[in-house]
Structure formats: structure tokens, C-alpha cells
Amino acid sequence: xxxxxxxxxxxxxxxxxxxxxxxxxxxxxxxxxxxxxxxxxxxxxxxxxxxxxxxxxxxxxxxxxxxxxxxxxxxxxxxxxxxxxxxxxxxxxxxxxxxx
Length: 100
Fold this sequence. Notes:
The chain has four helices and no strands. By secondary structure, it is mainly alpha-helical.
């Protein structure tokens, strides 16, 4: 269970790389030049969920393993920053899609 947060962070970061590549190549790949919302919103939702799970598992590891507390604390801080960044993007995308 101690490697689960790092694995979740890596998988979430791979989704971020895919999103960035799609945004970079959006003019070539998509008709309007923008990544469609049916691709963008699920990907952001998956990233937010993965980073939230990484926070939860890091906190569990932080409370369980006394010897590697600093490592799990750093993992929790990293997952929290990624979670908050992706959550703000998700909220702004939902706001623009559904409320504008």
C-alpha cells in the first residue's frame, strides 16, 4: 500500500501529459481547434479522482508507517497540490460548459 500513492500520481500525470498534447495539437486534430468537452471533462474528472485517492492513501501511510513519515508527508503534499490544480481546472471547465 505504500507504493499506491506514487502509482496514482504517475497515472494522473500521464493523463495530464495526454491532455497537454491534445491541447497542443487541438488545431490539427479537431474541427474547431479546441478539444471537445466530451474528452476534456472526463479526463479532468479522472485526474481529480486519482489525485484525491493519492491524498487518502498518503494520509493512511503517514499515520501507519512511523519510519517513512517524511516520504509519505511529501507525497501527500505533492498529491494535494496536483489535486487542487486539477480541481480548479475542472470547476472552471464545468462553469464555462454548463453555465455560460
